[in-house]
């Protein structure tokens, strides 16, 4: 540990040498005690700040160099900026079995889960992140699907004459709009409240002052949106991809994320277009196979088969050192719900004009409801917090360093 102390002291001395005796750090807020996982990230980042070999790998390292100390807010910001590509682990000369035991991806993955827990809304629901595993996801989907199947069976419509794809003959439109609309509104509100608290904690006052960021906010927002849509930092440290089983690079993790991300967006777009058709144009379902809602939904459903299958395959094969194995049940639960949603949706489309339409519709709606209910308290949250961290990074790098080296 003496070597570690010397290394950190040398990093501080280097920083002082840049600004002279007048170099100082502007405190942002009173320091809060760190949990064990947060303290480990802070320890590792002190070493990384002295080494800086990985400075060009991703956004984490240039953001790190704007700090000399790493409090709770800093650790939560940086761990959500990390995309867990694994490149820095294989490049690090201090990685295990070195006595410094520097494993950036694993340490940051552990604190990311703490982020979701700490900023959940309402706070009491944060504990669900630690229970949102594959078994819970499948049990919830199965339970909701079974409930709807039994409800349809009680009406005597479980097996019926072909209805030309008229779902509203089974479940009235207003009923579906009310139930799913209410759940979706809660999901948006819960996620918005959580990320709002996160933003206020990790962003210093100067980044929230209109006068300070008025000139950079639009450009920073555009850059962050571009990085999110491209999944830029899933390209690995050198653009060759992530590490999965070992130190070999692969772009497949990024590609499968793209299939999943854009498949989800296409399905959402299909729902939005169908809503516009219904309320603005007076065009009611069922829609033809060549209609825009069906084409968008079909393309999205195919993406949500390819992407989750690929991500599940990679998750099963991934090196345990690249992340937090305790979170794999949460990862796989979310992947399973996405896959079940797409498979049941495509099956419903294929057999919508048969006597099995009501059964398939009940199963699909049960799975979709399970997916919606778990969105604020499962793996989906990582995309929301990561997007906020990318926006903060885009703003922060356009502002003067808060280290104020050389200031009076």
Automatic annotation (TrEMBL):
InterPro entries: Citrate_utilization_prot_B (IPR012830), NarG-like_sf (IPR036197). It comes from the Bacteria. Keywords: Membrane, Transmembrane, Transmembrane helix. Signal peptide: none annotated. The chain crosses the membrane at residues 134-155, 175-195, 259-280, 292-313, 334-351, 357-377. This is Tricarballylate utilization 4Fe-4S protein TcuB.
């Amino acid at each position: 540990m003496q070597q570690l102390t010397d290394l950190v002291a040398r990093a501080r001395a280097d920083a002082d040498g840049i600004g002279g005796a007048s170099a100082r750090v502007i405190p942002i807020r009173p320091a809060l005690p760190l949990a064990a996982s947060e303290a480990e990230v802070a320890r590792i980042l002190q070493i990384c700040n002295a080494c800086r070999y990985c400075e060009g790998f991703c956004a984490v390292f240039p953001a790190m160099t704007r700090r000399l100390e790493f409090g709770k807010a800093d650790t939560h910001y940086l761990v959500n900026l990390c995309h867990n590509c694994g490149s820095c682990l294989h490049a690090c000369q201090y990685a295990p079995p070195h006595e410094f035991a520097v494993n950036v991806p694993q340490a940051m993955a552990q604190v990311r889960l703490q982020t979701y827990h700490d900023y959940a809304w309402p706070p009491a629901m944060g504990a669900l992140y630690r229970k949102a595993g594959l078994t819970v996801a499948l049990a919830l989907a199965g339970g909701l699907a079974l409930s709807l199947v039994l409800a349809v069976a009680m009406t005597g419509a479980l097996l019926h004459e072909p209805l030309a794809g008229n779902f509203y003959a089974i479940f009235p439109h207003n009923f579906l709009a009310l139930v799913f609309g209410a759940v979706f509104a809660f999901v948006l509100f819960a996620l918005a409240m959580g990320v709002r608290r996160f933003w206020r904690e990790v962003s210093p006052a100067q980044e929230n002052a209109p006068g300070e960021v008025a000139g950079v906010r639009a450009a920073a927002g555009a850059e962050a949106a571009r990085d999110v849509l491209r999944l830029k930092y899933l390209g690995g440290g050198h653009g060759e991809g992530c590490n999965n089983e070992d130190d070999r690079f692969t772009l497949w993790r990024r590609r499968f994320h793209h299939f999943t991300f854009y498949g989800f967006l296409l399905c959402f777009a299909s729902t939005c277009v169908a809503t516009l058709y219904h309320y603005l144009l007076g065009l009611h379902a069922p829609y033809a196979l060549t209609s825009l809602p069906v084409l968008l939904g079909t393309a999205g459903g195919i993406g949500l088969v390819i992407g989750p299958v690929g991500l599940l395959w990679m998750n099963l094969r991934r090196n345990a050192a690249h992340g937090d194995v305790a979170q794999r049940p949460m990862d796989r639960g979310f992947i399973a719900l996405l896959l079940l949603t797409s498979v049941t949706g495509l099956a419903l489309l294929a057999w919508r004009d048969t006597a099995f339409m009501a059964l398939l519709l009940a199963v699909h709606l049960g799975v979709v409801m399970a997916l919606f209910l778990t969105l604020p308290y499962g793996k989906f949250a990582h995309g929301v917090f990561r997007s906020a961290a990318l926006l903060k990074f885009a703003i922060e790098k356009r502002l003067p360093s808060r280290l104020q080296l050389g200031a009076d």
